[in-house]
Amino acid sequence: MWRLFKSLGLAIFFSCLAHADVGLLLGESTGQGMSRWTSAGHSAVYLSRICPDGPVRMRLCRPGEQGSVLNNYIDFSEDKPYEWNIVPLSVYLYGVEDPNNRPIYASPELRAALQERYRQERLQEICLPGPCTEGKANWRDTVAANFVRDVYMFEVTTSVEQDEAFIAKFNSVPNIDHYNGITRNCADFARFVINAYFPGAARPDHINDFWMTSPKAISKSFTHYAVKRPELNFRVVRFTQIPGSYRHSSDARKATEVAFTSKKWFFPMLLRSNELLFFTGSYLATGRFNPEREMRRRPNEDVSAELIEEKQARADGDFSFAKDLKLLSRQDRAAQLGTQQQWQRYSEALSEFREEATSRGLMFDSSSAKDLANVMDTYGHVALDRDGAIWIDYREGDSFRRVGVSASNVNAPGSDGEIAYALLLARVRAELANTSKNRENLPEFQADWQRLEDARSVLNWKILARELKTSSPSADPADESIIPSGSALLP
């Protein structure tokens, strides 16, 4: 057991060392554009030590900066045909500079407001009025990607020398677009970036993608490369799609996989049974890859370190120590992913909260995240404060009620407690209704749950104050100040 604690101490020590990472991003298919037919998804690259020096140049990050995502699209619609844009990580995922201000629901109007703020603050010099300011410009896809899709990050450690060499190389080469869907698509670009760090790490699957490069193929090959090299400290992170009015994304697929998993292709392919049999056999024999399974194997650095140590213990013949490490990694996975019993307890508690809300006639007590997002788009107006937090001015007849819709301000002073509670109820309900594949990891969900309990506590206090005032003629009139105007908190 002493060796177990020693190993754990080393794992924690190494995970806390100052290091940087490169991560290959696999975005699920949104079912829009060509994805309606290919289900290929999207590839991009995360660089933890590299930050934007403007949208089309890069530099080393300064202390406190979060790194960035390097994107390639068919046409950003900017003043020149750039091959790539680089955006801060939190902007790419959530549309905000500070991850503490990430939105608690997703809707088209909210995403458009975040994109417009990013354009005004970061793209003014290269995004001129015209196609760039219109809704279909592809630079918009680099802002708030988690509104429309789940994103997996396959992450390894890099050195400062590698990052400096990469910056020098990319800043010296003209940033000129050469995109085409066959030989220079987003996956080819991401493959080129990853291979600049680790030559040969990301490779296409020509057989299963009909001689093209797909996001799933390079994710698979990079995973296999990294797993064989313990010094890279490989792990997989999933950024879950934000609940709201967008349809949920679907698995990114290889070309042969689409033939037998997509209804659009499967039934026509039944008329070509020989080809369908070949595609199915080819994928099952050589193309299978499950990003979710990889994430569950290595959901953080601690588990990755424990797996490496367990493998070494088995190689050394120390099976007792390996067994202890296997148990420890299971416990760490459970802490990250949650157990079935934990999720069931949360579901039962949520049912009680919703019944309570219904009995008290609270606004939107049973609305889904999709319904609430649509209502907010219809009757609300997005307001972004100077700190980057998001507010919605909700129109109710001739009056307005303001609610914070960022994680940082949903329960802040000035945020309408009733609407905030309804939004948090809908978000938590959506997460619990998701399959485990599409659900937040446990620590992120627990933070949501704490915000829900905080909102409920404040709201119940206000309800109690109203009940006391109603039942006691001698109640202090000053208590009215804690009752939100326009609220129908009681039946």
In terms of quaternary structure, the protein is single chain
Whole-number radius of gyration? 25 Å
Strand order of the largest sheet: 6-5-2-1-7-8
Helix content: 40-55%
**Tally of domains:** 2
Mass-distribution shape: globular
SS-based structural class?
alpha+beta
Beta percentage is 5-15%
Mean pLDDT: 86
What distance separates the N and C termini? 59 Å
Discrete helix count: 17
Could you spell the SSE succession in H and E letters? Answer: HEHEEEEEHHEHHHEHHHHHHHHEEEHH
**Biggest sheet architecture:** 6 strands, antiparallel
Report what the structure shows.
By secondary structure, the chain is of the alpha+beta class. It folds into two domains: 2-298, no CATH class; 340-482, no CATH class. Helices cover 46% and strands 12% of the residues. The protein has helices at 2-16, 35-38, 89-94, 108-122, 160-172, 186-197, 215-227, 255-261, 263-269, 273-287, 291-297, 301-315, 319-337, 340-359, 369-379, 417-433, 442-471; strands at 20-27, 42-47, 50-52, 58-60, 68-71, 85-88, 151-158, 235-239, 380-384, 390-396, 399-404. It has a six-stranded antiparallel beta sheet with strand order 6-5-2-1-7-8. α1 (2-16) packs across α12 (301-315) and α8 (255-261) packs across α10 (273-287). It starts with a helix and ends in a 20-residue tail after the last helix.
List keywords for this structure.
17 helices, alpha+beta, 491 residues, 2 domains, globular
